[in-house]
Amino acid sequence: YYQNIIANWELSVGKKQIYWGFTESNHLVNIINQDDLLEGNGVANKLGQSMIHVSNYSEMGTVDVMLMRGFNPIQFPGAKGRLRPPFAVDYASTTYESEDGVDNTDLAVRWSHSINTFDVGVSHFKGTSRSPIFPGSGVGNFAPHYELIDQTGLELQASLGSMLWKLEAIQRKSDRKTIRAYTFGGEYTLVTKSGYDVGILAEYNYDDRGAESITGLNDDVFVGIRIGLNDEQSTSFLGGMNKDNENGTISYFSEASRRLGDSWKINLKAFGFKDVAENEFLYLLRKDGFVELSLVKYF
């Protein structure tokens, strides 16, 4: 993308990745970019979005306005991918509520500010939902449908010494239904005598879509640990698990990384499920999981 900064104004034109939110286990408000499921299962993997992005900075906070066109339909992993659904996705039969389809114009506005120990963001998105629904299916085939939505989001983080309190909440309206969801929790960081940072994470996820949510995070508790060795190689580890309070479904993950020399980095990731309930969307993926080792060269 092209970017120009004049005084307290910033203009960007092209494909960008925008990140909103504070929580670890779910990113409810982070709606601008489409999920990149071919890159991995993590909620942080996103595709670029074509946009005109204008920002204004002042003592009253930052105001962002984004005008977007060129929708990216979600792509599920194929037969050799992870995590792959056990059904064929009928992309040729994809439908859109907007008559303009992938050329629908989306609009987003956001105000964000830091006030003493608080970081806050309030946003509104109007356009094509990034998450599809599957209203009908053929013989083993599923056709995605993308609704038009209005989503209002709230982000809040409070920094109180070693404790970070975090909240993300949304209300999403469409002609079909109105949903409400939130993620709330915190992270407490300990510094050991060896200079390591150890963060203890705990969050609660609620989403009144229930089993319709493809993340499965409708009434779940997340616990995790983050370790940073604070060494020259930037060695780090993050791991955790989500457990559904209603049916006991468990998903777990871990990821670690370390720099090798000046231009190499090694990454290790793992993900899996346990005791997945039959009424969960994740039941379709219950036998899938992976361990991934990657070596990255930076130029």
**Which percent range fits the helix content?**
under 10%
The DSSP helix count reads 0
Distance between the termini: 20 Å
Proportion of residues in extended strands:
over 45%
Which class do the helix and strand fractions yield? mainly beta
CA-based gyration radius: 20 Å
Shape: globular
Q: Which regions contain 5 or more consecutive residues with pLDDT less than 50? A: none
Q: Write out the strand line-up for the largest beta sheet, numbering strands in chain order.
A: 1-2-3-4-7-8-11-12-13-14-15-16-17-18-19
Q: Give the strand tally.
A: 19
- The pLDDT mean sits at 90
Strand-and-helix sequence, N→C? EEEEEEEEEEEEEEEEEEE
Biggest sheet, open or closed, and with what strands and sense? 15 strands, antiparallel
Report on the architecture of this protein.
The protein is mainly beta. It contains no helices and 19 strands. The strands form three sheets. The protein has a 15-stranded antiparallel sheet with strand order 1-2-3-4-7-8-11-12-13-14-15-16-17-18-19, with no helix packed on it. A hairpin with a 5-residue loop joins β13 (178-191) and β14 (197-207). It is globular, with a radius of gyration of 20 Å. The chain starts with a strand and ends with a strand.
